[in-house]
Design goal:
Strand content: over 45%
CATH class of one domain: Mainly Beta
CATH architecture of one domain: Beta Barrel
InterPro entries: DUF3078
Number of helices: 2
Protein name: DUF3078 domain-containing protein
Structural class: mainly beta
Amino acid sequence: MKLLPYTLLSFLFLISLNCFSQETLIPELIPVTTLVKVTTYEPLTVALDIQPTRSFIPLSHWIKKNSLGFYISEIAFVNWSAGGTSSVSGLVKGDFSKVYTRENYKWSNELIVRYGLNKQDGIEVRKTDDALQLNSTFGYRQDTISNWYHSAKFNFNSQFTNGYSYPNTEIAISKPFAPAYIFLGVGAENINKEKKRTFYISPFTFKKTLVLDQRLADQGAFGVARAVYDANGNLIMEGKRSKTELGFLMTSFYKKEIFKNINLENRLSLYSDYINNFGNIDVDCDLLLDLVVNQYVKANIGTRIVYDDDIKSKKEVDGTQVTQGPKAQLKQMLGVGIVYVF
């Protein structure tokens, strides 16, 4: 029994020695210093193909701009010691434009109409303006960079009602289609959008002058061949009602805002006939200043200068119309009115 404690002590010593001599079952913890990229997963989305209920309308190659205006000027006197005559003037003006543009093609169309009246105390209503003008130009260019177009131009000018040399209102000095002018030719046109300028030149342009009133045609008005009479004044041959010319035409158009709310517009046309006195130039210049008050109210100042060697001026002398030579024609106008653009 005395050996039992020694035996137990020896047994415990052997067990402890055996435990420390075995490898550990728990791995050693090693610090991690490497960055690990963590990938995030987005939710899966599916695009829905929703068809619209309305079909798409293709873009039009036509660009239109229309304006219709009414201008008025008035002056009235009541017991005015310095004297004066009350008067009122009205002018209706329409400008309708439609342009087709596609790649290297351009087709411009413009219709201009004007009609004005004036009324003064004790005097009948008189016409102050009367114009009907149609312009159409078709052009083709070789590339989209060039400003030059091979063009064909058509132009028509006439009036709506009879014209008189006031105060004589019995005998008309002009009528609808008496005269009427038709220009048709081919040439080259330069269109510069940045400078707001259009320039057209044509070496071959036919000009047709129509005088469809026989009385005016017999007088040789507006350059047509007059009637032929014998020595006793009997009519042998009626006057021609038309005249055809071939000549050189140059036109230009310029429009720009020169100051804030002040627009300058200029139209110029020069024509010379090859056969009949080449170098004698017909001039038609129209200068207009538009002063914009607001979207609908505008004021304008306009001047037009016309010279045509075939147009003979007429003057009233003792109740008789006397035909004079050609003179430069000048017209000036000033008005304030309402303009509707659509």
